[in-house]
Design goal:
CATH class: Mainly Beta
Oligomer: single chain
CATH architecture: Beta Barrel
Helix content: under 10%
Order of helices and strands: EEEEEEEHEE
Largest sheet: 6 strands, antiparallel, barrel
CATH topology: Thrombin, subunit H
Number of helices: 1
Length: about 110
């Protein structure tokens, strides 16, 4: 079984670039290795995109797309400083980003909120 990175809820706006097109998207959640977002424009699996957050660019590859939801993998895992940029873009000010997956009961299984 593959270990999944923790995903943190995020609701910040971002710009996506593919080829010459630039469009807006809403970040849904983020991990060190990837991001899920809701996009107005359609994208397809395998497309190379650039995610722009607070004037920082993060190259990524679209892994899956279903309706307006899209999952992308970063070209390289985010550092702590890069991850903080996404945290600053969230409109959930004062609440901080918390893992969307938590452990309960001390049994080692992960339960979703």
């Amino acid at each position: 079984m593959k270990h999944l990175e923790f995903r943190w809820p995020c609701d910040g706006n971002t710009r996506l670039k593919r080829s010459q097109d630039v469009f807006r998207a809403l970040l849904v959640n983020i991990s060190r290795t990837g991001v899920r977002f809701s996009a107005i424009s359609r994208v397809s699996s395998g497309e190379e995109i650039v995610i722009s957050v607070l004037n920082q660019n993060f190259p990524a590859t679209v892994i899956w797309a279903q309706g307006n939801l899209v999952g992308a993998q970063f070209a390289s895992p985010l550092s702590g400083a890069e991850f903080a940029i996404f945290s600053k873009s969230s409109t959930r000010k004062g609440t901080g980003m918390r893992p969307a997956v938590v452990q309960r009961g001390g049994h080692g299984f992960q339960e979703f909120r």
